[in-house]
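Problem 12. The chain below contains 180 residues. Write out its predicted structure in token notation.
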Amino acid sequence: MSLNQILLASAYTAIVYSLIWARFRFFKINNAKSKMISYFNDPAVFVQLIFTYGLLWSADSLTLIETAIAVTIYSFSLGLFWWAIRSAGELDFASSDSKGTIVTTGAFGFVRHPFYLSYIAIWLTSTILFNSIFLWISCLALIAVYLLSAKEEEKGIMSSALSSKYSTYRENVGMLFPKI
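Solution.
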């Protein structure tokens, strides 16, 4: 096993443990719609995890530049993920019926959906790095789920008593990319 593989495996494993922790300890699944999304999302994430680990362990030609870029993006994603956890306090699962409050500080002051941005960066990095059809299919499926979930969440908030506050927030903060 090369140093490149060890670096990538270490960064990726930190991500995997963080995502598993959040899936079962942080996010609450409180309705049928949330459960349905998780039934689709979880298998696609599983495909990403299994294929990335398999390809990572069998990769013999990762360059130092590829490794450095992937570890940098993985580290950014992991940092953004934990910043979002810290900023959020408590969150319901994406399609929750509960609207609670709007978080606009910390990672949520950077982008409206920092969790989705961190997930997309992780899956896209692995997919581009290893260029596997299974990774591409699961990555595109996950991106579609995240985008649809983000739109659905925002639609729900915009039809709630929080719509005025959220409208102002949307004008100032980008969905997945910071507004300049």
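Discussion. The CA atoms of residues 111 and 177 lie 6 Å apart. Students who got a different answer should revisit the alignment rule from Section 12.3.
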